[in-house]
Amino acid sequence: MTTLKAKDYTTDQDVRWCPGCGDYAVLAAVRKALPVIGGAKENQVFVSGIGCAARFPYYMETYGMHSIHGRAPAFATGIKLANPQLDVWLVSGDGDLLSIGGNHTMHAMRRNVGIRILLLNNRIYGLTKGQYSPTSEVGKITKSTPMGSIDEPVMPLALALAAECSFVARCLDIDAKPLGAIMERAAGHAGTAFVEVLQDCNIFNHQAWFHASQKDTRPANTLQLVHGDPMIFGVDSERCIIRSQDGLGVANVADVDAADIVVHDETNRTQAFELATMRYPDFPEPLGVLYVNADRPMYEAACEDQVARAKADRPADLQALVHGPETWQVT
Does the residue 20 lie in any domain? Predict the structure, then answer.
């Protein structure tokens, strides 16, 4: 079998995103990860909705579908149900998947359809030129909120966990290696895999995540999650996450016993939800795999089983159906 490389997933289409857009980094990471993940290109499908990120299928030398606004999860679900052997990826933005598409995104995760969702979160509507999005922070001044947004932002990780998504992770667009590693794990997961990618839009929302992505600010403002490891962060690993009467809290490592530092357990959904609802600047931004549940039944498997049982219980006889008792004659 031919060994594929990143260039084998590169199409002849000119990549047309704004210079400096985080989409370039995500595209490169996906192209590098797929050869490692393996599988034939003809069995891989990329689906998108509407927005800057929705151009993704054009730039992947696989099957793909550029669907309509907000409906990408429904299309991806249909593709997976029609052919469960396909490796279906959904790539879109926070505006597409959490606003008009929020309902479809939620139900895809609730059903545990075997698709991989990459949500590129730049906290803005980029394609339509800079309106605030469902993930924009309170007070965000944009063309559609000239006095500042008064909406509390949607928390994608918390939404995914509330919908009982069975794989929930988060990373930065510029972190090619961690992003690739998370995608490899997502690809091997049996069920819905949701990955939020914190991304910069250097035209309409520049520096949206700079507190988490820049070399000088990142150590103090991010928490790298590793299953089985204590939650420690900071420039000199001097800060940690502890548990208090009010839930999770932040403390200095020197001020607490080692036993008081919370250890990450990616199988603990309650802990994952606490991490997902931590808000910067009171807490660091959690990065990595928050939660994995490998035991949830897959939706497409249940559908196939139901169809098989229906066929067994009701043998197909077209003439019997046409001329059966539930017919009538109009005179």
Answer: yes
